[in-house]
Amino acid sequence: MPRINVAVANGFYVDDSLTVSNQECNNWYPDNVQVNGALSPEILNDTPGIRERTNTGQVNQSNRGRHEKAGKPYFLNGETLIRVDEVVDISGSVSFINTFIGTIPGDQNVMMEDNGTQLMVLVPGGKGYIINETAIPVFQEITVAGFTANGAPQYLEFTDSFFICNTDSKKFIKSAANNGLSWNALDFGTAEADPDNIVAPIVSRNRLYIAGSQTIEDFPNRPSGADFPFVRGGLVIKKGVSAPLSLVDVGASFMFVGGGVNEKAIHKINVLRGTISSKINVCYFLKYW
């Protein structure tokens, strides 16, 4: 029987360009065989991945958020917030225990940030919660009036010991230093370069940026005796954010889905230069828009 080469890798991979490949192969990637005489010059390798160590949820239960604080992972599955604790027995065997932390009503995704001691969980447009294993009780809802005095908190960031949220009233607010349970109604700022709505905050290279629907402004922490230390830095980027959860810090830059007037794309802001570095190739992304 004659040998037939089957191009097993051709057509079974995904590419950013739809003209190259309009298919998607999950958990496999093509590779060229490096020796002569092989049955096929191409193979599909399975993807090096992670090993499941424990299961934190139930069947048909959606995950609403996850975060790691002090080396311990936290998961909000459905309305149940748990912490995964690692246990090593006398023989050295490792196991994991799911520790119930509290109940957070709702079904939408949440934001999580921590200051090393406190973990803050924010339901966008809803309630905020603080988890602190060194306090009693461990799980507390943020009930102080200053938390909602400037509107309903929407999205969450952390920098320079402060939890920071934007609100639905074109303002952003900060907590007391290292205390997410303490919020003052007078501790707020506004992005004034353009009267657009504030979409979400983003921190990159320890610098706060307030992203609006049409512009992005920087607000460095410059304490000068004033009660509110985040002041306008003078940088105004004429690109807005249309998807708040798309904001992601990638080291010397951050990325988001948005753009200028009548534009929607994935952009990258070069924080070191304070300019639009590039518009990212969006062919594959647009397939799922």
Verbal overview:
The protein is an all-beta fold and 289 residues long. It has a domain at 1-49. The protein is built from 1 helix and 23 strands. The chain has one helix spanning 283-286, and strands spanning 28-32, 42-46, 63-69, 72-77, 80-88, 94-103, 111-114, 119-122, 128-131, 139-141, 153-159, 162-167, 172-176, 179-189, 198-204, 207-212, 216-219, 236-237, 240-241, 248-249, 253-259, 265-270, 275-280. The strands form 6 sheets. Strands 19, 20, 21, 22 and 23 form a 5-stranded antiparallel beta sheet that branches. A 4-stranded antiparallel beta sheet has the order 3-4-5-6, with no helix packed on it. A hairpin with a 2-residue loop joins strand 4 (72-77) and strand 5 (80-88). Mean pLDDT is 83; it is low at 284-289.
